[in-house]
Design brief:
about 425 residues; Tick-borne Encephalitis virus Glycoprotein, domain 1; ten-stranded antiparallel β-sheet; about 15% helix; rod-shaped; Flagellar hook protein FlgE; Flag_bb_rod_N
């Protein structure tokens, strides 16, 4: 019997050495979680064996328990490197319906634009309901796919304008060029207007155009005329006037009951269709609500427009809540999804698949999906990778202990053999 007891000890010590060696071998594996060999003693008991002093029958490995403690984070220069700081797993699909879970966040892009790991498994995200990243469909997950086409352009249709038109200005000494048919921006001289502003606008094809607004004080107190040109041609022609009228009250504020503005202080020009490139006509709406006429110098407080040209993908940003944004060369950004995370009631019950991945089991419980930073889910750090949580010093000590245990059990076999030989030699 001592032989069998010692053999169980050798097997247990060998398993301990294997577990420790596996931990040491993966000390530099991103997202790796160390394991620990746990042991239980063995007793052969029966109904007839009621002795409280019965000798044991050895040892067995009760389980190899995974330790899901947090690993240190190493920062990188790749925004698609993701690390989880806290509880949770990345959700990965292999494209064939198989789901796995991982803490290794070294992601890259395949030929189709899918964000994948080293095993070509696809990272799962919650699909955005809008492009600004404020709402996501958390009921299901989809593959994270980076756009491979250029970002579509958007035509300008609104210009936010906040000016101060000086109240002490006098009407220009030279009249405006004349009827609409003869208007030409090149004929406009500085003595025909009081002030001018300009901005770049875009048509439906993303082609840029220069919009210039000339402000002319009239003889009527508080009244200004605005002449708007796009690429040197008139953008306002209603058949009677080639200008729009702004009227200010005695306090210097825009009078929304007079002139050409509506109750919101907006005025919409006639469609401009002189681009000559097949684009849709540009219909500009100016918001002059915050424009004033005070007794100070002319000032441009705001002049912004909402159009943009076509853009190419220039980069990817991921915030700590897991929202993935695509940045384009035209200055625009688009929410592509929100990294989906999973947690389990019993993470130690997960089945190890290799490739730093785990699979759900009955023991682990069902995967609970969630978002980073909510409930008990950790935060996501972009441009970082989670190191293995293996402590080399601790594992080397375990290695020594396992070796001593192995040697001690081998000594039991040697001692039992000596005793057996002594008995056999009795005559």
């Amino acid at each position: 019997m001592p032989f069998r007891i010692a053999l169980s000890g050798l097997d247990a010590a060998a398993t301990d050495l294997e577990v420790t060696g596996h931990n040491i071998a993966n000390a530099s594996t991103n997202g790796f979680k160390q394991s620990r060999a746990e042991f239980a003693d063995i007793y052969a008991t029966s109904i007839q064996d009621v002795s409280a002093t019965a000798a044991g029958r050895g040892v067995k490995v009760s389980r190899v328990a995974q330790q899901f403690g947090q690993g240190n984070l190493d920062f990188t220069a790749n925004n698609l490197d993701l690390a989880i700081n806290g509880e949770g797993f990345f959700i990965m699909h292999d494209g064939g319906g198989n789901v796995s879970y991982s803490r290794a966040g070294a992601f890259s892009v395949d030929r189709d634009g899918n964000v994948v790991n080293h095993a070509n498994e696809r990272l799962q995200v919650f699909e955005p309901i809008d492009t600004v990243g404020s709402r996501f469909n958390t009921g299901s997950t989809v593959d994270l796919v980076l756009p491979t086409l250029s970002g579509a352009p958007s035509a300008t249709d609104r210009i936010q304008t906040s000016l101060n038109l000086s109240s002490f200005e006098t009407p220009p000494t030279v009249a405006w060029p004349g009827p609409p048919a003869n208007d030409d921006e090149n004929n406009v001289t500085t003595d025909m207007y009081n002030h001018a502003t300009s901005t770049t606008i875009y048509d439906s094809l993303g082609t840029s155009h220069r919009a210039t607004m000339y402000y002319v004080k009239t003889a009527t107190p508080g009244e200004w005329q605005v002449y708007t040109y796009v690429d040197g041609t008139l953008a306002e022609d209603d058949g009677a006037n080639d200008y729009s009228t702004l009227v200010f009250d005695a306090s210097g504020r825009l009078d929304v009951t007079a002139g050409d503005v509506n109750a919101q202080g907006q005025l919409t020009l006639s469609p401009w269709n002189d681009a000559g490139n097949g684009s849709d006509p540009i219909t500009l709406t100016f918001d002059y609500f915050h424009t004033t006429q005070y007794g100070t110098d002319f000032a441009v407080n705001e002049l912004t427009q909402n159009g943009y040209t076509a853009g190419r993908l220039s980069g990817i940003d991921v915030d700590n809540s897991g929202i993935v944004f695509a940045r384009f060369t035209n200055g625009q950004s688009q929410a592509l999804g929100k990294v989906a995370m999973a947690r389990f009631n019993n993470a130690q019950g997960l089945r190890q698949l290799g490739n730093t991945s785990w699979a759900e089991t009955y023991t682990s419980g069902d995967a609970q999906l969630g978002e980073a930073g909510t409930s008990s889910f950790g935060l996501i750090q972009s441009g970082a990778l989670e190191n293995s949580n293996v402590n080399i010093s601790e594992q080397l000590v375990n290695l020594i202990e396992a070796q001593r245990n192995y040697q001690a059990n081998a000594q039991v076999i040697s001692t039992a053999d000596t005793v057996t030989q002594t008995i056999i030699n009795i005559r």
